[in-house]
Amino acid sequence: MVVAIVASDPQELAVTIAAVRQQVYEPAMLLVVGADSEGRHAADAAGAAWVSSIGNLIAGLDPRVTHVWLIHGGTVPRPDALGSLVHESERVEAGIAGSKLLSAEHPDRLISVGMATDVFDAPYTGLDEGEIDAGQYDVLRDVAAVGGASVLVRRDLVRGLRGPDPLMAPGAAAIDLCQRARLRGGRVVVVPTSEVLVPERPREGWREEAGQIRSMLKVYSLLTLVWAVPLRFLIGLLEAIVAPFVGRWTLFGWIRAWFWNLFHLPSTISGRRNARQHRAVGDTELFRFQLRGSASMRRLSGELGEVLRDRLPGDDRISLTEIGRELRQPAFIVGALALAFSLVSVRTLWRGFPAVGYSLPLPASGPDLVGAYAGAWNPGGFGSVEPLPPFLGLAGVVQTALFGNGAVASWALIVGAFIAGTWGTTRLLRTWQVEAVAGAAAGLVLMAGPAARAIAADTGLGTLVALGVLPWALRVPLARWPATRWAQIGRVAAAGWVAALMALGAPLLVMAPPAALILLALITPREPGPWRAVAVSLAGSALAIPVLMPWVSTVDLAAYVAAGEAFWEPGLLLAAALGIALLFSVITAPRRLAQIAGWGGVIAAAGGLLARTGDLGPGREVQLAAMAIASLGVAVVVGVSLELISQVRIVTGWRRLLAGIGFVGAAAVAVSVVLVLLPGRAGLPADQLDDAIGFTGAADGDPHSSRILLVGSEDELPGESRSVLGAPYRVVSAPIPALWEAWLPEPRSSDAALDSVLVELIGGESFRAGADLAAFGIRWVIFLGDSPLESVFVGQLDLVPLEGLATPAFVSEAEVPVRAVASDGTAWTRTSTGYAGTADANARVRLAESANSRWGSNWEQVDWANEVDAADGSIEFAAIGSRRSQAFLAAAIFAALVALSWWGRRRR
Amino acid sequence: MRRLLLLVVAGALAVVAVTLPRPEAPEGPSFTGAAVIDDIAGAQGSVWYCPWMNAGAIRDAYLMLGTVPNVEVEVTLPSPVPNEDADRALSTILGPGAEALEVASIVRRGDAPGFVEFDDGPAAVSAVVTSDSIVTGDRCVASVPKLWHLPGGTTRPGRLTTLRLFNPFPEAAKVTVAGTSEFGEVGLVGLTSLDVPGRFWEDIDLNEIVPLLDDLSLTVSAEEGLVIPSLVVSTDLDEASWPGTGLSPVWEFPVVTQTGLVPSLIISNPGDAEAQIEVDVYTSEGSVEAVRTAVAAPRTPVRIEIGDLADRFFAIRVRASEPVSAVVVAEDLVQSVAEEAQDPEEVVAQRIAGTVGVPEPANRWLLTGPGGVRTATSTMWIMNSGANPVTVSILPLGSQSGTADKVQLEGGTVRRVVLSQASGVSGYLLEAQSPISAAWSIEAGDGVAFVSGISIDG
Hints:
heterodimer; A: alpha+beta; 6-stranded mixed beta sheet; 25 strands; B: 458 residues; mainly beta; 8-stranded antiparallel beta sheet; 7-stranded antiparallel beta sheet; 2 helices; 34 strands; 5% helix
């Protein structure tokens, strides 16, 4: 018998060594394992031997040794603990035997008496918190795993298993050891008569989770892993979303656990080979002692139920007073309701963004979208090297992180914005002691109020996402200034990455937080916080600018700001309701809240003003950003107005009456958020394009390789449009354009050529529009509404009208109306970002894309299009290296800001 | 105080926001596209639609092609069998040149309406149909308006009037045919929202629907799609056909008669106000204005007999106070031997010809077809409605280039040029310093036809 004390803290060794020496059953050898030189010194001082690792221990085991007792440093086994373990282990022929673990601080409290796990190797002790040991579990039994603090392992087994996994946290390592032992046919039992006192330590959350994932990967068959690993991933994600409501923050731990496993994947594969090489049983045996469902979810639901029970008044306490009290402190209920509202409001986005206006489905590939943002081909219209808006880069990253699933990425972006916006507004208003109910209601107004609905109705996807971050961009600078230098640096970094995240959605909004905070500082000159917040916000906005590369370094800002027309027409009734709420909250509120309400009112009015300045030059992006600013102002006013009614001791008498009137106004604005609930699209309009042009996907041949000429009014056309002699139109990919086509680059020779063809058709100089448009890869002409161009396309000899559609549609009779045609007349297939066809060293391919020399080998410009060799069988656009480098740099800056803020937060 | 200031600032911003004007939206354009009736030969590619063609066992049809520059020509003759590909023919004409393309060389299946595409211009087409007894034809049309006017029909005894609705486009058309007669508006049963399938044609026998009308003017309006109509009036022996026209306050008819034919001018006024009509006559000696006057009541066609305006050949100009449509129909009126004993006044027609006018004189004209039918005699008609003399250069067009002749016309005169049967000539290019009008006529066997000239843009 060898006793191995696994040391983590050398200071704790003495008490354990002393306890081991008092064992009735005397071990042949006592060893201290690990803890480097400190461990060796401690072992020397105690007169014990020392080995550097479990591996060395196993390698040097005397053949006469029958068992190894692994105990953690700091534990105190009772004198008969080892004897019981040895006796019972041999009696039942167990491979591994574990002790009953009791709290060292409170020896009557149970820590573990063996444990079950779920299929994800998360432990489940079955004990209540602080459960007293009354001998209720004192029966020897088989278990899935035993606590790692005191484990007796048969010598041959420990050699075969190579001991506990040194990379794992203790809890996960014990589970892993037991799983591997059982895989080899060994019994794992808990021996309650062997009692060990263990110090209660906080669990190393993410390391334990990482170890559990690694353990799964090592022991299960591939068939099990196929479903268990994705499920574990999703459960972790769900826990990360819900756990904050019970006071736990698991998101970063979850991310770190998975990245840790990714990093250690090679060693996991090696460990898996060893674990499964001599297995005696299958997964069924491992499932035998496992829970149904997820232990994490079981724990979470228990915590949620507990919080809910705490929050709900008893039957005998239902009274207005009690409800009032609950309304003032219902963080969980309000949070749950806000979460539910968010989920219901965006439920239909599971299918992706609706195809209408500037809202189009994400492309099939997330990496391709990121690539297109980072210097590859911009496929809008006939294509260009102009950079895509930064929101597309953000969307591409999210889509890539979600395994390329565009629909889930669409949902995640919007639901994330809703939750972040609601939560952020609550946190922002808490700065001025606005409580949870009013704060959450204000948050919902921010994301689904009149201005937010206008943003959504205008299909400002990026602005909608940025709106969710906007309150955080104010909250972070306004939060209490930390004391330490690192924490201060971290705060500025946090302001930077939050501002960057917001700017990725709506670049113009990057100026909004500093401006709003300057206004706040002017309104509240006696408070020192806002001016510091201004400085932090300004620094954050400055740090956000480089994150917008490569877009920010190449965009024509003047054109970007002026594109479209800014003119928002808010509903008069809700505007009046907001005015009432503002008026009476400013009049009746205590000084500080009145200032905040006034601040919100000025922000809302300024946003509204800016959103209507189209006649002076600003365009659509300015309008969207201005509406986001207005939405923030409206949310602040509503939050303060709703809060006032609960301040029964401060707002009294005639003030309370007026505050009530203001409350009614604010409530009217707040109630209007239900308008987004029923459609479930976060306020976005219903899909229009799919009904009108989706049928092209069912056309014969390869419809994906052709384009559609869409005609209608500017409002009816997706994204930006061009016009010929004043009649709007635009060209999109069939069958449904992706989001990266919503924005059109500056007109090029390709656009001029199409314009010329359309002018000829309008002038009656050509009657074969099908053939004329085929050169542009256009196979269909589809009207989305009334257009003067309809009379032009009716009298064409080679455009066949399509019956049974709501609006006129024509299909070309031209031979190959596709985007890429080889010199022998065969059509090439369009891939996500390029083209593919039959490789032919002697053939050339004409690409109906705007001419650019990066399109392939032996490139030649033919009119406005490209001609390249067909030798490779595929044609791809060579990305612009400098832009790609800028994109990498931007990502690195963003990551550095996040890391700095995290580090600073830890140093706070 | 600060509260008040905040409220004032917020209120002031809101007031300014309310007063900001909405950016003015540009007014939407209106494209007529090919909807204006403007059948002139422009300096670009063009399509000409020829509804009334027939090439079978009895009849032969000719597409009379003429061009100024070198052109690639594609002739398309849709099949009457649904979903069957159209018959096509490709050709190249060196310009300036002309070619008489026999439809039977492409397909011989009876009715064969079709269209001709030129890749450059000026170029134009006329269509002529012949048989042992008939000659009919007129210029083809390049415009495809939604509304056509077709005056000159009749369903009186001895006449058969047929309306052909040719839809050369892929899209099915839905058209409504309305008619007016000497009795005012007439009900045309079954001709409301009439379907004309794409790349197909419909012939409507108007004698069955509205018999015994001396004058029948039609309008064809397309509710969906487009059609190209042609009105055909036939006697027992001959046949006349002309395309739809637009409306104009002035119409010039360089050709109105041929030896033995008695011409009539039929005017239709689709407007709501009466139109005062004046007919000017042009002979080789000079002109007389307002030699005939009439009133065209709204939606009632008026027939003006003009056979007695001059002794021999003449041309006319019609001036109206309101836009009207007009055609000239010339008939060969002879007494019926069989009925002479019973009613000496009764006469029957042998030959018949008809044509549309030209709304505006021009400096250059393409006459496509004269000389193209070897068995027929062609005559050119040139009218100078201006006051000053004009010298006209006449260039024969065909497979061989010819040399231009020159003729001089005094102001207010018409010149009739009987064309020789020159080998290889199938058309003429006329050029003058001052605007003129031109047409041609063709005579073969018992048939005669008038064909309007096609002016060249610019």
